Amino acid sequence: MTAVNRALALFVPLILFAVGGAWYLPTSTEQNQTDDENGEVVLSSLPSLPSWADEDLPDFSGYSDTTERKVAFFSFLYPRIVLANSRILLEREYLESIVTKTELSDADVKWLTDQSERLRVDADTGSEQQFALLRKRLDVIPPSLILAQAANESAWGTSRFATEGNNLFGQWCFSRGCGLVPLSRVDGANHEVAKFSSPYRSVRSYIQNLNRHPTYQLVRDIRLQDRQADKPLSGTELAEGLLGYSERGEDYINEIRSMIRYNNLEFYDREFRALLGNRSPDLFQRLASSDSDDALLPGAEGHAASPFEG
């Protein structure tokens, strides 16, 4: 797809705001990216977050060896990606259970309404259109893409916004005091770089951003096409839809893809697919409530523990 065609496939607002490699368009009803840090709607079958999800970002600045720093960064972030994606898969399971019902309960209607509001789905409750749009937006992001963008946007977890605000993806907010004021912010601007209580919350907010913002429609289109073709999701492929994430446009997409290739990050996509196994709800429950982040790391049964092994 050419740059022109890709641009036409995206919703391009007349006024864009850019910072830290992320485009963001505030709306009249959304002034703060962190209003819904969990990015979740209350669901009785969704387990409580494990305590390690609230841990702060480690200090990655002390690594003198580049490979060691990369392994440490990926090993910290990957379990949080598994946690976020597993909880989304549980939500998808609940959505599919509702689709087959002949009559919706009050709880079903409320959940659908809340999810539609969170994911910006404008459709009648219980309609085929609502179910189709929620299926498209309530879905996972491949670990390779998340890892590459987090490394790129946060300087491998060492940027000011990462260390002081647990913000790994350069997301903005627009309420006074909601985040960190960029040192280079021009006079008259009111944006801040959002602060999160933990890196996990940053990951979940980033996934929500790709799942609902009009700028990333192409990301969702590509993902849906892969789902319909029964193809594994690819971070390299979904990166095609990131034209609006940075003012650098095509160069940014190429850089993210290069990072995925150079660091063998599709290793984590394969590990995640293997971890999901038969994709049973019981498995999703265990992954979504794991007592230890180490338990979600690659390396079981003699497999390579990092993309730099084997």
Automatic annotation (TrEMBL):
InterPro entries: Bax-like, MGlyc_endo_b_GlcNAc-like_dom. Residues 118-253 form the Mannosyl-glycoprotein endo-beta-N-acetylglucosamidase-like domain. SMART domains: LYZ2. One of its GO terms (molecular function) is amidase activity. It comes from the Bacteria. This is Bax protein. It comes from Marinobacter excellens HL-55. The lineage of its organism: Bacteria, Pseudomonadati, Pseudomonadota, Gammaproteobacteria, Pseudomonadales.
